[in-house]
Design goal:
This protein is α/β, with parallel strands linked by helices and about 450 residues long. Helix content is about 50%, strand content about 5%. The chain has helices at about 1-20, 25-45, 60-80, 100-110, 145-160, 165, 170-185, 200-215, 225-235, 265-275, 280-285, 300-315, 345, 350-360, 365, 370-375, 385-395, 400-410, 415-420, 430-435, 445-450, 455-460, and strands at about 55-60, 85-90, 120-125, 130-135, 190-195, 260-265, 325-330, 340. The strands form two sheets. The chain has a six-stranded mixed beta sheet with strand order 4-3-2-1-5-6. Strands 7-8 form a two-stranded antiparallel ribbon.
């Protein structure tokens, strides 16, 4: 029975490969052969390809889908010529959370490539700071761990609550943490392959080295030689704001790899491999909303930034206090618009009131914006304004006032007092200011609002 099953699966894999090859352009087929040769050389020769393990971090754009199809074609091509082929591990991640539509799109691609039941393929995703098997039914609104939630809140209150900053360079630190988790769970990975061009990788490496230097890491220039080492050093930085009174922790040296984790260099092949072809139609990308995204933002929810802009605009609109912080579903014209919970808030486990508080930043700079925040969002608390200042200053005040502050902000009172006074631990001030200066493409944001008043005041 096992032999019959193996023969049937071999026939199915051959059909998948033929379909992929038939929908590739001539240039893609030539580049595929060059990619196969490069994989064999990187593995150490054909005799070692069976133990070679390749990791790809799957984004939600067309280039990521095309790259996965090409890698699958290479895997199946080698399997037809040799008794074994390389192992492929696919890590699905989207920040702050994967939507159900995106998970379904990934699942359709995996089904088209017949990857679910292939023992040479591992399909996984990051959920609640853990690496789990891929599931299209996963809860896209699952909350992050409290440390990520607290770090996000403190980052917004201390530095800059603009959507571009909240989902900016700080997002790459969360991505590094996801890659670290994946490599810890699967330590035998030999190489990582990416659709990100060399120019974008150099930009990311330069930003990473600068962030690590600001965090006080000695000799960060050498860390880019190993993807795992770089991810291990970057990952803790996204949670630094969760403990702003402390310094930057040091990764466990016992987890060092014997050999560096390399990036498979295919930059000279990317233009041909990932160019326009009929592969999109095979993968279901012709009709499905798989997006074209800049290389550094392919792991970010495309709606999150728009949602934050919409919420922030209505939250702070003059003359319209207490607007409901809910989005309007505009996908179906002609139908009544139904409110929906912001996905960004769900992903981090935030209540609407806490998200509004984050966007207003009322506690920074000794509560300079507290009165306006109360006028716009909580007019019934204006009479308690003096007690709110006393609570944030650490002076005696009613417990009900303290509870209101904690519930409205989502942060412990001790952290809020630190925000109020602008006190940051060693290395944290420069790191947060640096993170707030760039968007998700690591492009500089306007300096006039990139660094919050609280941070500037704390450095004076």
């Amino acid at each position: 029975m096992s032999i019959v099953h193996d023969q049937a699966m071999h026939f199915i894999y051959q059909q998948v490969l033929e379909r992929l090859l038939n929908h590739m352009s001539k240039e893609q087929r030539v580049s595929l052969q060059l990619l196969i040769q490069r994989l064999l050389v990187t593995a150490g020769g054909p005799e070692y390809i069976g133990t070679f393990r390749l990791l790809v971090v799957q984004g939600g754009d067309r280039r990521s889908a095309r790259l996965l199809a090409i890698l699958r074609a290479a895997q199946l091509s080698i399997a037809l010529r040799a008794p074994v082929t390389f192992k492929l591990r696919v890590l699905v991640t989207c920040l702050p959370a994967s939507s159900s539509a995106m998970l379904e799109q990934h699942d359709r691609i995996f089904n088209t490539l017949f990857m679910h039941d292939d023992p040479r393929v591992q399909l996984q995703m990051v959920e609640q700071a853990a690496v789990v098997p891929f599931c299209r039914q996963a809860d896209a609104a699952a909350q992050h761990l409290p440390l990520s939630r607290e770090a996000l809140l403190l980052f917004g209150h201390l530095v800059d609550a603009r959507p571009e900053a909240l989902l900016g360079s700080r997002t790459h630190l969360e991505l590094a943490d996801a890659i670290r988790l994946a490599l810890v769970a699967y330590p035998g990975t030999d190489a990582l392959v990416t659709a990100m061009p060399a120019r974008q990788r150099r930009r990311f490496a330069a930003w990473a080295r600068r962030s690590l230097r600001l965090a006080g890491v000695a000799r960060p220039d050498s860390l880019h030689q190993c993807v795992y080492s770089l991810a291990r050093w970057l990952a803790p930085l996204h949670a630094v704001a969760g403990a702003p009174g402390e310094g930057i922790g040091t990764p466990d040296l016992m987890q060092e790899r014997a050999l560096p984790l390399r990036v498979l260099m295919i930059d000279d092949l990317l233009a041909q491999l990932l160019g326009e072809s009929e592969l999109d139609r095979v993968l279901g990308c012709g009709l499905e909303p798989v997006r074209e995204s800049p290389p550094l933002s392919v792991f970010v929810d495309p709606q999150a930034l728009a949602q934050l802009h919409d919420i922030g605009g209505r939250c702070k609109a003059p003359g319209a206090p207490r607007q409901a912080l809910r989005l309007v579903n505009q996908d179906v014209p002609g139908k009544p618009q139904a409110p929906q919970q912001p996905r960004f808030a769900k992903a981090y486990g935030l209540e609407n009131t806490q998200l509004a508080c984050l966007l207003y930043r009322p506690f920074a700079n000794q509560g300079a914006g507290l009165e306006r925040f109360l006028q716009c969002r909580h007019a019934d608390m204006l009479v308690a304004l003096p007690y709110l200042h006393r609570a944030l200053q650490g002076k005696p005040c009613p417990d009900a006032v303290k509870d209101w502050i904690v519930n409205t902000s989502g942060l412990p009172l001790a952290q809020l007092r630190m925000v109020y006074k602008g006190r940051l631990g060693p290395g944290v001030r420069k790191l947060l200011a640096n993170l707030a200066r760039r968007d998700v493409q690591l492009r500089l944001l306007g300096r006039q609002v990139a660094v919050g008043t609280a941070t500037r005041k704390a450095s004076s």
